[in-house]
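FAQ: What does a ligand-bound record look like?

Like this one, built around 2-deoxy-2-amino glucitol-6-phosphate:
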Amino acid sequence: MCGIFGCVLKEGNAAPLIHASLKRLEYRGYDSVGIATISEGKIYIKKDQGKIDDVHKILNLDDLPGNIGIGHTRWATHGAPLKVNAHPHTDCTGEIVVVHNGIIENFIELKNELQNLGHNFVSKTDTEVMAHLIEETLKQNPKLTFTQAVLDSLKRVEGSYAFAIISTREPDKIVCARNESPLVLGINHQGVFCASDIPAFLAITNKAVMVNNGELAILTAQGYEIRKISDNTPITREPITIEWTPEMAVKQGYPHFMIKEIHEQPETLRNTLRMQEHYLDLLTTFLDRANEVFLVACGTSYHACLAASYMFSKLAFLPTFPVYASEFVEQCGKSVSIDSTILAVSQSGETADTIAAVTCAQQRAATILSLTNVIGSTLTRISRVYIGTQAGPEIGVAATKTFTSQLSVLAQLALKLAKKRGKVSQDEIDSLEENLQKLPDLAETIVNTQEEKIKQIAKKYADSKVFFFLGRGISTATAFEGRLKLMEIAYIPSIAFPAGESKHGPISLVENGFPVVFVCPKDECHKTLIGNIMEMKARGAHIIAVIEEGDQEIKGLADDYIEVPKGIPSVLSPIPFAVPLQLLAYYTALEKGFNPDMPRNLAKSVTVK
Ligand code: AGP
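The answer part, i.e. the structure of the complex:
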């Protein structure tokens, strides 16, 4: 997730306004920043890696001439956060300049084609492809207008994008276009603006024009024009008045970042399905060759590892050992060797316990692989191979979208490894791949259909003194995550363990009205889980079941139930089943009057051991 901004002013310099607007978009990404303007037929660009304020101190982002320009604040997905990968990006001539938020899925194919035509690329980004594509389109059809060249180029692009493009060929206009990544226009007496998000310009205008998927907009100092990308037909769309405060706008109207990020999961899960095959294949190769694999993480990321251990075992017959990073050195330090492989998982890539564990393993010559949400983080710098979860910045302290993104990438790795090892039939592979693609829509359905019911359940149990969270098989990991969410933001003591363990001690806690959350996908554990539900009910527990829709058996046993769409393969179930538990924790925290974004005693990234 990055932030783009563009403006065409009737008079005055664009750069200071672009700089100020990028600052308001910094929550969308902050590892690099850049601005490009046009003045008297010439392009001016300033860009570098680093936070906006730091880059501004060195380069003075306000000091660029011209009344038209575009800017970008980056959250690296393709290419490390280095100056060369910072946006804006240009074509060979330097006359076409592009900023972009999204993922161009077919950029490798397009880049190879353009390089074979003699185009020189300087960055590792997918975005740069668009500048050269427009250049090539104009080279082959010099009579095209700049807008038409952009339209023709867009038809070659697959994936998600919000582009803002300027060129000295038509120096009075910005051409912007949208597919899935957000894009909105602003308009006032000064001129016209385009941005990833309303906060970029809300301080200077509350008149906004939404740009929808498959639409292109042309901005000039006089106004804007919207067209359909598919056939260039014009679309009339009047501005709307935004009633949000700037503070609300940063959360896109949501009251907290956490609920915004829970709702973002359909989009972030779509992005994790656009991983670069090359890196997935590389990681899979290392895992395939491994003698022993430790999955090392903390907190929510550890729960992703726990779920992954079931995925790798069930799909690829690969035994893996999930280990809490804080215990790794004591528990495994001496047994790690050159024959060991570590797959570290950390959304921040900065968790001190995880870094310490990885450093210990590295000193014993182990192979270090990692999965993180922050490209350029410490973890990526000490890993032999890493892959990004592409969930965009997660502001809420409680991990939500990064958790489901981690699970999606881990499931893809397990599936690739299974294919490589020939451990699952083609039919099963096809079915799992098909179900992986469905996950974003499933997450959307759950949020849309169950949120109101979950609010009621949260209200009903908010005063409970303790919760159990139980599951069997891979759902044990889901139960652990649901427990952590409720504990860390609603401050209710919660206990999670494999449901089969109840009779070995914990069930002594159960008395009348004791809330027990069961995670119940219709998998091979379903029948036994019903027995665990019965043993809890027999002692007066209140059963809160997360079930597949239409599961009449458990519906009949539960005091309350939350339904997720049916037909989810067990190995993928933690992804959809986590969403109701995230919502339950969020709404319980609200019921108790707590701020879910800033839970007491916790930090987003625990950089102390
Ligand atoms: C998750 O909701 C918590 N905020 C915390 O447990 C977190 O998952 C843990 O600190 C690990 O963070 P990381 O993924 O950045 O390494």
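Follow-up question: can I read anything off the structure? Yes, for example: The two ends are 29 Å apart (CA to CA).
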